[in-house]
């Protein structure tokens, strides 16, 4: 048996959505028809209510509490119910399961509609804001139509627990738990000084000013109670890490430099706020002894979580077989612990989700447990269950009380005081968050964006205000105005950030970083990207075939890309090869690190190698690649092709679309030149004794062709590398330069044309220069097929042959645009040989200072 009246200060009230006051048994009203003793009769609303409860399997005790039998009647009996009860049969939406399904569908479609609308309008509004607007719309509809309307009967639950809101509350607890799982507290130590100072000052400064203003006013002139003032001051001053992480993810900024600083600052702010919240427990307790008792019980919980649960999780990880997922029984056990943790904190009369949060902190983040929990719980919880909780909060808001809060010259001093305090704290926090980063040499525009991010409010603040309202620590009017402020904040601040932040300019470079502009004696800095172990050998072989000497050094930065799982913050780990040991670095990068260490020590010690591991979201890995290339002044980024071939190079064993989209995004925003390596033949300068590596560059004209030629000419300076430059000319057209681009082509080829008569070999440079006139794309196809087995590596420009007779008629057959027409043809399965191809694109993002 389960007894309750649907209200209460704890979980039943704050996190189940609660219910309205019990309907009185007296009073008149319209009469309703029913069936008693087989005859249709009329019955009053009170009798009707008792009849419905009996049909549900519920009774009312003498003390007024509702007694419900378990399992309750969840759905109707369909047509049989109508036949038995006649006109008094209940509608299907009066039953709990159909009603829950209707609410889930209604809320889901509404918040998705808002989300799609904002995307179509190109407005940067987070998903939480869409959820709140969906709940607000439902509140307006219920207010206008009344509780007794059809929509009111579905959304407003009377006299019993609101199942939809209760399910949403569970989703919110899971949200807090995952917030703890994904949080890496160690990042506080690694955070930059400006992030730490901004995070602490953004919390402390508004609180100090607020307390000063509050103390200057006499007690009789204070429109707000002490509890209301303290709660508002604390919650408006802190910045939630989880809320900021979700905001940055929705805005696509979590991998930008501003996003990294914002995440670190939010983490510091969140921990500072939690410490203030826990420290405030003893102050608000009934007595000093009660405060110490609560602190002791909280400390006991933390000891159990970190001294018992965390070691058990590590034992589970050790027992797990490598490559196998975490067993379901451990996931279910953790969910049980989440529920027990919330019940423990509820028993302490504290904010129940904090129990789930601290338990989440005790769970090792990342693979295998942290990532498994996030993968299984986050998407369904965030998309389906959590919106129910947000909508339930919005339905409990009294929108009629907003009038006084929106009017600056309001006759209601309390509403005006609430609105004024919110605005004051916002301006103080915004000012501090602008000034401190600016003093640390951050550009003013970036400082303003960071301050707006740190001033953002969302579901964390919303839930804490609901908890305070359920404990009668804030009034209904105050709660409603606070909800309104969060709605306005969460909608307009992201839109302003979207207007100020321009992601296309974050990788702009003010100097040329390409091979064509380098001198022969210049240093070549490359960034090699690795996704899979299959990519290691191909990249090492290409590096080995590249030329390096004291006059022309070669520096290689190796970046192992790992998808972010079970964490919110992207991570870049640097491994110094010269100081590397087997146990250093993450386990998932061990093969990459050791392979390049071996290559550096025993094969080619003249190449300088520095290895990194990037743990990032798959949709934003290009940001980390470009940031590292910009920071290290890299000249060439080398990316692996998204297709991987079998050992005999005859069949495709993997085709990863995520890698392809990553390559396309890097090509669009890279601050230097980019190469995509399609390896189907082992590229190695030492194929067999006395045998050279044969490289062919196809040159039609353009900046990408000049870049490919520059890289090929550098390879030709290496021992045992023979280069053939094949220039394709349009048949019947003059070879004289008629434009600036063609003049640059002529200058680039002049050295080869002077030192080589057509068809001869320069023994010193091992370079052959050939010219071939072609009619159209079919002629080009036949020519390339005829020489397919003559070379080990083709080096071509991405735009090779674009808008030229060389590709006329075959440009529509290009499957992968990132390779260009010629590159796609050479890499296609229909090409006779399995020769490797390197497609090169010259730097695109250079800014002209003129």
Automatic annotation (TrEMBL):
GO cellular component terms attached to this protein's record: endomembrane system; membrane
Keyword hit for Membrane: yes
Subcellular location: Membrane
Annotated ranges, domain Cation/H(+) antiporter central: 554-684
Location of the Cation/H+ exchanger transmembrane domain: 113-500
GO BP term, pick one: proton transmembrane transport
Membrane topology (UniProt): Multi-pass membrane protein
Keywords per UniProt: Ion transport, Membrane, Potassium, Potassium transport, Transmembrane, Transmembrane helix, Transport
Single Gene Ontology MF annotation: antiporter activity
Entry-linked Pfam families: CHX17_2nd (PF23256), CHX17_C (PF23259), Na_H_Exchanger (PF00999)
Annotated transmembrane regions: 100-118, 130-151, 163-181, 193-216, 231-249, 261-279, 291-309, 416-436, 448-467, 479-501
Keyword Metal-binding annotated: no
InterPro entries: Cation/H_exchanger_TM, CHX17_2nd, CHX17_C, CPA2_transporter
Cation/H(+) antiporter C-terminal domain ranges (all copies): 692-843
Similarity field: Belongs to the monovalent cation:proton antiporter 2 (CPA2) transporter (TC 2.A.37) family. CHX (TC 2.A.37.4) subfamily.
PANTHER family for the chain: CATION/H + ANTIPORTER, CATION_H(+) ANTIPORTER 5-RELATED
Full protein name: Cation/H+ exchanger
